[in-house]
Amino acid sequence: MRTINTLIIVVVALFLSAFSPPDKFNDGYEVGDKATDFELKNVDGNTVSLSDYKDAKGFLVIFTCNSCPYARAYEDRIIALDKKYKEKGVPVIAINPNNPEVQPKDSFEEMKVRAANKGFTFPYLLDEGQEIFPVYGAQRTPHCFLLEKTDEGNIVKYIGAVDDNYQDADDVEVTYVEDAINAMLDNKEIEIKNTKAIGCSIKV
Known about the structure:
Strand order of the largest sheet: 1-9-8-4-5-6-2-3
CATH architecture: 3-Layer(aba) Sandwich
Strand content: 15-25%
Distance between the termini: 39 Å
CATH superfamily: Glutaredoxin
Oligomer: single chain
CATH class: Alpha Beta
Helix content: 25-40%
Number of strands: 10
């Protein structure tokens, strides 16, 4: 009986793996890696790349989307981060990694509507063909990558969540991204360099 149960478990596992989405998450950046640039279409119709920001000291690249409730819960906080740190040389660059054929709410047209309704102060880019998010190693929406602009390139300084409470901005105890940006700008060691991104899986 135990042998039969084991066989059933193996067969089910093989079936599920065969029909699961492609695994794009094996690789990706670690803190200290040099991040690639990109050229992606913004909701205003223009293309945006990191090289456009000649005076930037770094970038907060956030993989996010329209449809995920976690991403929507963080939108106001992301806008606040952009307003606070853009003038200090660290702008937010938001990228929608989802496949709109799988999740129509994340189509380019819907992105334009969402950005206008929320008053996004930052670029909101479509990862068309889903080529950029696997390179970075994004797994969830939202998923943050803090980059420091150096002579050697854009170096990854922090990867993970915005803060420790997606449900209530008023109950946040640790502001992971904000703490990391402040330390980076002050040329200090970032105490927490990695956290687990809490959000929806990326739709491939």
